[in-house]
Amino acid sequence: MDFKDYYEILGVIKDASQDEIKRSYKKLARKYHPDVSKEADAEVRFKAIGEAYQVLKDPEKRAAYDQLGSNYQAGQDFNPPPNWDAGFEFNGGDFTGGSNADYSEFFESLFGHGFGSAQGRHKQYGDNVRGEDHHAKVLIDLEDAYLGATRSVTLQSPEIDSSGHVVNKQRTLKVKIPKGVKQGQHIRLGGQGSPGMGGSPAGDLYLVIEFKPHSIYRVDGNDVYLDLPLSPWEAALGASVKVPTPLGNVDLKIAADTPAGRKLRLKGRGIPSKVPGDLYVITQLSIPPADNDAAKALYQKMQEELAYNPRSKLGV
Amino acid sequence: MTQEILNGILLDEQTELSLIDLCCACSSTEEWIVELVEEGAIEPMNLQTTGKQCRGWVFTADNLRKARTAKRLQRDLSINIAGVALALNLLEQIENLETRLNCFKINSK
Questions:
Q1: What pLDDT was estimated at residue A153?
Q2: CA A229 to chain centre
Q3: How far apart are CA B106 and CA A92, in angstroms?
Q4: What is the per-residue pLDDT for A164?
Q5: ipTM of the complex
Q6: B101 close contact with A: CB closer than 8 A
Q7: pTM above 0.80, yes or no
Q8: Domain that residue B58 falls in
Q9: Between chain A and chain B, how many beta carbons pairs sit less than 8 Å apart?
Q10: Among all residues of chain B, which has the CA nearest to that of A189?
Q11: In the CATH scheme, what is the code of domain A134-211?
């Protein structure tokens, strides 16, 4: 297990005041909150920041951590010495959100069991309480939204085992992704959340749909966008060209004198739904390189015979 | 071993959620949802006809996403409801702008 430098994670020096630690935590938490940040590792960073603050904001935990950590560097292999926490008192945590799966192994080994951090998060339920709803993300390809698909979703949920300990239980579900799903939509799976108490129904599982970035298509709600490169002669003379769509190639008529950046609509070829989206094709010009004598000769011929000034609108 | 394939319900624009549905999905109280509505962060379809009769409210499914984001922001960053509503608005604007930017950008590879 690696040693974690909580000061480094929060970007503060070792003798920072509690106020400095709090300020730094607040700033970083806003910056890396997964709902706000676009950075790919925001969720991991946010959890690491939360964990570091959980220790450093509490003077008792901080003192214990300081005593322990003075000999370690971040990333160094670490095992807590026996009875390392003797003489320190802990009051249990209130680390916001999530299960104890959010904590690192390092944190768990020091502050996890026995300090109330896990137990404190489980509410005392009476009888007849509906189970909690669970949430998970599912990543799909754009093509799945056109055709529908089946996806396996692996879920980790904390459960209390027979000896009263919180354990992370993994389960895998196979879920049908209906055609026509859109980014950010939810799929509700009735009864797949936590079991209810006293014969009450189980909670539901909500899956949030997220599209993987596609190599050629971009998505806006129901509509899909595609950049379509054209050769100069296709754009100038007009042509019928093959265009890929998520459901296969189609032929598209390009009018003569089509400029770059023109938006052509293929009605109803976006993501299917009651009102299906459209596929927008944005034209681009692709200029063949003059990398051989024949090509050079053709360009020179155009230069001589076409009196064309692409900068006439600039007045030069 | 073959595994059963689960069929869920897609919560699309046509799906209607009750106040209780939202509360359960957000693990929140009714009062908290009412606060979000009063702040204008989310809006039931029938606010005009039901007024403060919150038990009769019907929400479109996109409100679920907003309410859950609101819950996380409030919990993790300890901001109040007004701040959450502002953050939701700004996040929505950023998302729209980024989508537009993304759709019209010319591949500059």
A1: 86
A2: 30
A3: 53
A4: 75
A5: 0.80
A6: no
A7: no
A8: 16-104
A9: 100
A10: B8
A11: 2.60.260.20
